[in-house]
Records
---
Amino acid sequence: MRNLLLTISYNGSGYCGFQVQQNGVTVAERVQDAIERITGIRSDIKGCSRTDSGVHANMFCINFHTDTPLSCHRMRRALDAVLPEDISAVSVEEVPDDFHARYSCVAKRYIYKIWNAPAKSPFYHNLALHYPRRLDTELLNQAASCFVGTHNFAGFCSTGSNVTDTVRTIYDCTVSRNEDLVTISITGSGFLYNMVRIIVGTLLDINEGKIPPDSLPGIIDSCDRNKAGPTARPYGLYLDKVYYQLPEEFSK
Amino acid sequence: MRNLLLTISYNGSGYCGFQVQQNGVTVAERVQDAIERITGIRSDIKGCSRTDSGVHANMFCINFHTDTPLSCHRMRRALDAVLPEDISAVSVEEVPDDFHARYSCVAKRYIYKIWNAPAKSPFYHNLALHYPRRLDTELLNQAASCFVGTHNFAGFCSTGSNVTDTVRTIYDCTVSRNEDLVTISITGSGFLYNMVRIIVGTLLDINEGKIPPDSLPGIIDSCDRNKAGPTARPYGLYLDKVYYQLPEEFSK
């Protein structure tokens, strides 16, 4: 059996996440439907992550075993044609048998999009958080840099998670503006449940003066969920990049 | 009565254009609904242009007369809150009584978005044309420059239009790429029916080698609709800017 790495991109607005234990359509189901339509067999698929309901992905990796004789090129084209409008098949490649989309992953980048203008955007409904108050990207960048490094992020994890090791390494955390669109970008070795959304909620609290920026290192060290900001809404969040090799810039 | 200039932005996917003689919901109706809900009176509104079904607007200007005592600031906020998710109220300002959104307009900029990658984009469905074959932006920019100037654009006008003067001035026509998104931008004194979409269809034919680039000046001069390319699909098209004063760069 061949082991194929399928990279997809999806608009999560209409889905209950990639693969969750809920009633409702998931991205995984749609991908399995597409593979079955092309190969005739319903494959078990492994996703690189579990995204929440409403969360999007610019890059999401999946692997599955198949004995289809189709070339990777034809497989991608066929999958892209068969998948619904809100899921695209970006690439298909052959990977070693022991490659696992989730366990082989060494880092991920998430971005969070904020439409920062008085009026809502008709093009970013469900694709960015509408935040009318002006965001101070200089202040937020200073605050964001406090997350970089290896920390115990227990305070930035929603209850209900059964993870015991809450230490994660953040390689990069920056805030940038392109006209009315502000993007928070976070790259890390791994992320706890809702960790990015709680980091974003904390940065928004800092922008509003509810949390003094210089108290942030203490809030991280406290490991107290109640000291961090609220969990930002899901629909501004995108899994943006999945790393199977750590780039040199992060591996020093 | 006050004369108010309302600037909106809209995602045209769900509308039969701004104001057309068809069955189906129009943007104008939704704007009139919103004004009526706030002022209590259904105002007659004047739009800067008639956009086709499925066409979008980053900036679209409307004027209407009202005796509401609300400030422009409050009026904008109330309209933005009442308008549906795919229409936003960007600004409201008081204008002289003789200002007319359409007749006072001296130039407009349209952009046409093309998603130029092998896989479709889950985020640009209905918001850009998916064109998998690689676009040569250098070649297209050279061709685009042929449209600049004052020409008789009779060959770039769909039949069914009853306009007699088909001479228009194009100030700027450029093609740019931002990763997989290619944008064709056209600024002109005015546009004939489907003119931008036929210009885009012609540029795509040039990219495919169906029309030799050096024949373009002759095609324009011929005033023959059959020599130009096909009318590109509506959903990549955006009214991007409306000018009520010609910028210095265009007025030489």
---
Amino acid sequence: MLYFQCDYLEGAHEQVLRRLVETNREKLVGYGEDVYCQSAREKIRAACGAPQADVFFLVGGTQTNAVVIDSMLAPYEGVISARTGHINMHEAGAIEFTGHKVLSVDHCEGKIDARTLENTLEAFWQDESHEHMVFPGMVYISFPTEYGTLYTLRELTALAETCRRYHIPLYADGARLGYGLVSPRCDVTLEDIARLCDVFYIGGTKVGALCGEAVVFPRGDAPRYFLTRVKRHGAMLAKGRLAGVQFDALFTDGLYWRISRHAMDMALRMREGLEKLGYPLFLDSPTNQQFVVLENGQMERLREKVGFSVWEKADARHTVVRFATSWATEPEDVDALLALLAEEKR
Amino acid sequence: MLYFQCDYLEGAHEQVLRRLVETNREKLVGYGEDVYCQSAREKIRAACGAPQADVFFLVGGTQTNAVVIDSMLAPYEGVISARTGHINMHEAGAIEFTGHKVLSVDHCEGKIDARTLENTLEAFWQDESHEHMVFPGMVYISFPTEYGTLYTLRELTALAETCRRYHIPLYADGARLGYGLVSPRCDVTLEDIARLCDVFYIGGTKVGALCGEAVVFPRGDAPRYFLTRVKRHGAMLAKGRLAGVQFDALFTDGLYWRISRHAMDMALRMREGLEKLGYPLFLDSPTNQQFVVLENGQMERLREKVGFSVWEKADARHTVVRFATSWATEPEDVDALLALLAEEKR
Amino acid sequence: MLYFQCDYLEGAHEQVLRRLVETNREKLVGYGEDVYCQSAREKIRAACGAPQADVFFLVGGTQTNAVVIDSMLAPYEGVISARTGHINMHEAGAIEFTGHKVLSVDHCEGKIDARTLENTLEAFWQDESHEHMVFPGMVYISFPTEYGTLYTLRELTALAETCRRYHIPLYADGARLGYGLVSPRCDVTLEDIARLCDVFYIGGTKVGALCGEAVVFPRGDAPRYFLTRVKRHGAMLAKGRLAGVQFDALFTDGLYWRISRHAMDMALRMREGLEKLGYPLFLDSPTNQQFVVLENGQMERLREKVGFSVWEKADARHTVVRFATSWATEPEDVDALLALLAEEKR
Amino acid sequence: MLYFQCDYLEGAHEQVLRRLVETNREKLVGYGEDVYCQSAREKIRAACGAPQADVFFLVGGTQTNAVVIDSMLAPYEGVISARTGHINMHEAGAIEFTGHKVLSVDHCEGKIDARTLENTLEAFWQDESHEHMVFPGMVYISFPTEYGTLYTLRELTALAETCRRYHIPLYADGARLGYGLVSPRCDVTLEDIARLCDVFYIGGTKVGALCGEAVVFPRGDAPRYFLTRVKRHGAMLAKGRLAGVQFDALFTDGLYWRISRHAMDMALRMREGLEKLGYPLFLDSPTNQQFVVLENGQMERLREKVGFSVWEKADARHTVVRFATSWATEPEDVDALLALLAEEKR
């Protein structure tokens, strides 16, 4: 069986795991105050070019989105998201659970256009009855998006400028941040993210860790008593070291980037193969998720030997499926997948 | 100045007010247990052809929507609404405040098509990852809709059947129920509503009362301890008599229908005049709200003498505005409006 | 039958009702922007000696408490209340519904002592793990309390000073404010309330109105976009005039105080009678609620002819019951109650 | 420096960690559906004598309490807890965040007495106005309690019987369950817990795991769509293996009990030493937390060499402090602590 259904099929990268083992018996205080959390914070600040950043570690992505968004919105505000955004579609209403509306807007391959955002914001403020409506209080994007696509530096800058004009923060969900930033087609850097976003998170769960996401407020302006807010959400990790040691390892000697690049190489290898075999790509994803249109019969046959995600119906006879690579993907597995797909074409 | 901006510009219909005065010094128990609430309940049950119905009185529309929807959804469920639905657009996030997502779907002139609903529900249940999504737990419609349009009996039946097939309740927001049911183009009766919906409310605030909406669970299956849920929402009226006396009056000798018909007559008078004057209607509304496309200059001039609602931009040079009639609209005022509009055409 | 079970058994005071009738057909904008709301605001500001106060009208007491408290607390904060406070005992969890804890503290006849408050606040801030606890963010008192007792000016000043030292607001629930301020044993004025509290409400429902409570932020620092917060709670009154006209009437020519004094007179008449008859008072209430200890057999016999509230068990054979007077209580009814109680003693 | 401030100072027990390493590269599905989660579930079911139990893995204790309590309460219900209960004091309002009130009751050394519970429940149902109050919908206890104390089998049975008589579930917070069940003074077994409680959790974080708590519904009646509820709370672990592998290891060959017994041995060693040295114990704790009364000067001197928790003031000159042992406590460290305390006595 081959496994491409997602990018969190394995445990942690060996170097991460080794550090957990090495530090295991050290007696460390809880709740993120230990030396590894401190060290990880410093490394992340350096990597972001944001020496004054506030950095917090949480366990998972949905949790992080809920905590961050709930903490930054006023009660009467909602968060703008692409209709396809993870918070709007696949978080079981975790944002609404905190009492806030997700204000969905149109998207282009998962991305929000600065023009769309501008129009939305302008329309709100010009509406006579806007006091009866949810105020747009924040913009949520993902980098890369649900569709594996990337904002260009120009697009991201335009979004950030629009947000600033309307005095609302821009938040980037970086569950797969590594896989986006190392793409050969990416012209955005981590420093750019830190400069243009008001808050973002660096995904660990999908990029080499057992669990963990690092929330970064690059300007050091985290909402007051953030830890208490985290606790109230049930999101406080007692043994904060679990996240701290892992992120410390990931941000030592560029491990995070090295393993991200591996996933990217595997995705490119897959993509080239798919194109060579003539499989139509659903869209042009420059990152570790590749979306392919399969004929339904092909899909059913493949299912017996390969794990993948069913994305959406293309038409009555075709389906879009997703193959994901990760830091742990072996080239042999990519080749085996391509061989199976080649058979289908024969 | 003429006033057509909404249908809640006056106090209560005189017969309603008179009953408040006549009963004022009676000593009555609170919280909806008094004789007038009981009497109003009986009259509403009779009008609905639902002798076993549970009937509760609340103060306003947004409150009613929040209490009813929150009470009928499981925590992991959301409510399906047309994108233009009041709960999705104009209730300041009152539904999300209760922790539930509004699952917006496409609409046609404010209405949800049974086919759209079916597709939405089917897609949810077929999605591999639906356990990570908000469950569609209820359908919200308004009758008439935000656009003044009406579901036909056939459309409403199709929606109800779809809901039943998926075991989710159908809820009708009847803020303007009277103005819908008396429309000459309406083939739905109150009994139909009670038969096809699992819960609905009969609007008082816009149809002759100072305040008050009557929530009806036609099959007598209101969520357990409904009053406590109401209290928890801060929605309990201490002097329940205020709603009880008013609804008792409205449902005595057909007052509710008589005053609804007056609003309808005024709307038809307005509509005929608008058509005669050649003003394009934005859509074909058969109820008390009429949507007209005005040239922006016309609109600005009119604004000085007439109150109306700005609905949306039609194009760069035109705007859709709404004129609403009510039980209190005088024919002279309609004629004066038409005269002003006639001047514009000269 | 005699009725002393509560102070909201009748409709509105006749002068209030008359104003509703007189203004009924005036065309007024909604949501509290009409001329009567404006006028009522001005009169309330004048009565409070707080010309810059923000004043909002809501429908009921639990609703008001939930909206005000939720609006003034940070997410990580709770509200301090006497264990017996209305928000802690009799609001069906409406505060917790908004996500905030009620931090209950010991009380003395319904009142919080400044020393108790000081200790609570100091203990919180000195606790090593206070970041894992709910922050005390506000103090809730009622004036008069649930037990009909009153804070003296000195007590209220001490509470206010403690709150200021800890930078948290003091909020007074004035559901029966009138009945407290007119008590011959009250040395606090409305101006004092406005000077010492950061927010409070003037109760209408129990003091002459059909419904309605006036929230006052005496320093004009209401939370931003308060109306949207109100709407989100489902607490917005479409026909704001309903509250505006009533409060305008109540604060014209001292009506509010006049009718409050009547309730007070009736309570004193009752109290004197009770004492003369030798009925033990549960506590020394200087306001319109009188708490009497009845032998259980007496209570059961009385129940057939008099409405009252069962407060709590005194011991196995006695029960504390409450008799409430109001603006609408007739002296004949008090005398009839006393006659029935006299019979019991024979 | 010596460390006794809590029982989560180290990483995971070596056998647990080894299994994480051994299984690290296995490709496993997420969200708790992998083979290790399945295996751990079976072992837990066997240990509980509850073959049909539903078992779920969550990350931390506050999170588990919030998810379980919110899932089992109706909206109008609250949870009964000892005033000193973790959910009432040290979870930053995480229960209230879900909209539910914690109904605190008196306790005895952290325990709720069945009689107190009975009285509370009876008083609620007999109260005339209970529809205006939060319904008691569940009982929360911890085993052992915050004070390290244990319910006897008889006490637990009495609580369970009271709960059943009132048709409300009994929930045991087992953050330190192992440390309670292995106490020589404990006459309750895991099977008893499973038989008497409707839901409970087996703590991992404090008993050998990096993180993780196992929620057990012994009768297999977990709330519907529990995983979606977990996700909505932001509590879903993407790599469910992290909890599964750990609990599988903990419940293999009695590891959980073995390491619990070690902590117990260390606590007894400490306790004997404390008694021998004449230090007064604050209460008679039979588990891994020992509460000692220190003179304030002693406490300050000790602080420089030993980590401990400041529990509460005993009087003006004395303070209660807590020393906790765990699976990782070394006998040498206990002896070193005792030596320091002996010095204080010289």
